[in-house]
Amino acid sequence: xxxxxxxxxxxxxxxxxxxxxxxxxxxxxxxxxxxxxxxxxxxxxxxxxxxxxxxxxxxxxxxxxxxxxxxxxxxxxxxxxxxxxxxxxxxxxxxxxxxxxxxxxxxxxxxxxxxxxxxxxxxxxxxxxxxxxxxxxxxxxxxxxxxxxxxxxxxxxxxxxxxxxxxxxxxxxxxxxxxxxxxx
Length: 184
Hints:
Elements: E1 2-8, H1 21-30, E2 34-39, E3 44-49, H2 53-68, E4 74-78, H3 79-87, E5 99-103, E6 123-126, E7 130-134, E8 153-156, H4 157-170
Antiparallel strand pairs: 1-3, 1-4, 2-3, 5-7, 5-8, 6-7
Helix pairs in contact: 3-4
């Protein structure tokens, strides 16, 4: 079994995209996932599965489309991959609530930083399948646009660390496979 974290796009507490976390948990359990736990009402779910990442993604996207009546983007990482996102954060001294990882299905394009628009005091860096952003003075006034992040979903470092911890609780990783600080 592998601990996975699924991050849903455009899910929030109110307005369009509303999804009660009890429904998300039920949908995951119906898909055969085990030890299902959700975190805050923004589309974060942790679980165990023997399926591959691709099959987990497909199963959850299918259930979500059936539930919502339209496609819902789902990005999936193993618990170890999420812990590595925390370890690889290029802005470790930034305020964790203003520092995010934009999760992508694939590695960001090599020219992703050259296409950024509206950058002021924000710092942007590429990760494995993430784009990291430190919003410096906060997100509220930011005009930052990252074309390479189309289809991504963002989580701040506090949330990512909590989800990595929850994944470790669901399915503890052997000590030798735990992430080390820095890129591989």
